[in-house]
Design brief:
Layout (H helix, E strand, L loop, with lengths): L7 H6 L6 E4 L2 H6 L7 E3 L10 E4 L16 E7 L8 H11 E10 L11 H4 L3 H9 L1
Parallel strand pairs: 1-3, 2-3, 4-5
């Protein structure tokens, strides 16, 4: 989720897993080696075992309509949560698409593009950011 042109964590888990990559723009998703050869989708999810990607502005609409409820085994958001204006809403949507027993991993640091980070994120302290993830 919120993938960019590079995400070394995703490439380590790629093996035989079906990956669904989300990003803000197609150019960065296409440049990400983890999603090389993936098909793009803008209106509906693709079936089968192949990986696919889609773009969506989660700040404009914090929903994941291309993903069915309970259809995702794991969600990884690496260094992207700080750019969301409504992270609580997006995480609620993640909970909707997560399968029972699924795993969510949200990784973040203090390093970010301050001009792109959401004011609500920048205004929180480190412990407040962790609390947001726990809720």
């Amino acid at each position: 989720m919120l993938s960019s042109y590079s995400n070394s964590v995703v490439t380590r888990f790629h093996s035989s897993a079906k990956l669904v990559g989300h990003g803000v723009n197609e150019e960065e998703l296409a440049a990400n080696p983890a999603f090389a050869g993936s098909s793009s989708s803008s209106s509906s999810s693709s079936g089968g075992s192949s990986s696919w990607t889609f773009t969506a502005d989660l700040n404009a609409s914090p929903r994941l309509p291309l993903l069915a409820s309970g259809s995702v085994a794991a969600v990884l958001c690496a260094n992207g949560i700080q750019y969301l204006t409504r992270p609580e809403w997006v995480l609620a949507e993640v909970a909707r698409v997560l399968a029972p027993g699924g795993v969510v991993v949200v990784a973040f640091s203090d390093a970010c593009w301050r001009e792109r980070a959401a004011a609500g994120w920048l205004g929180r302290s480190g412990p407040q950011r962790l609390q947001l993830m726990e809720e």
